[in-house]
Amino acid sequence: MNPPAPEDACARAAFERTLRLAAGSLSAELELVHLAQVDSTNSWALDREQRAESTRALLVIADEQRAGRGQHGRSWFAFRERSLALSYVPRPAQRDLDAPRLSMSAAVAAREVLSRFLPRAPRLKWPNDLLVEGCKLAGILVESRWLGARRVGPVLGIGVNLGVTREEFPPELRELATSIAIAGGCAPERASLAGALAMGFERWLERSRIADGRELAVAYLEGLELRGRRVEVATAAGPRCGVCLDLDLERGLHLREEGAAAAVPLAQITALRELGHAGPAASATSA
Hints:
2 domains; five-stranded antiparallel β-sheet; single chain; 12 strands; seven-stranded mixed β-sheet; about 290 residues; 5 helices; SH3 type barrels
């Protein structure tokens, strides 16, 4: 492989300095891998962890991602320099967190960080998409790989649309996807956003380790904007409808169904929507 041109090396070094500055106190415990091109940052991170488990947090960021994926195997249309694709492997002490804590921590952290660049905070869609006016701004995919009894990961992947215009999306996604620019926000530099997201993931993963995870549950439900609203909860056993009352990590989503209170375990929920609002049906982002 040829070494990068001097101007490319300088730009790369500046990018990584900006990222580490934005990562704050996490920077000292962060291993950074900056790739020019990759099929999927999540796949790259999982392959790397399978070969040799990181002793620190690991952040993998790509300038160009060719085969990003989201929930249910959907693909992501990435835009070089105007989208952000990264994957984050938590510090070893945080890797034993269960799936709901990992997923919700990533979603709450991303919402908190992206709110800095938008007129209003994005809304969360179960389990961890971020929407602006019903259109998808960012998506998160949390993955692990099992080799017998050995767990590889977890990896938190995120894709964010930054400066993409409406016309640049494929026709079938123009009414379903959005970007910070389209939403009237100020698109940040990719490096500074990547560092801020890594720091946000670290902070919320650490908060989620508190026994009952109440702070995380409250922040996640606030992001869903569904408290007090009628919702439909999809489960393998069939849909359940009721008024959303609360959420906790132990018992699940609390509903009032026909006057009686009930809780749906988080692991049983496959989809959640406000009644009367179908929401976007396709995926526009992933990692």
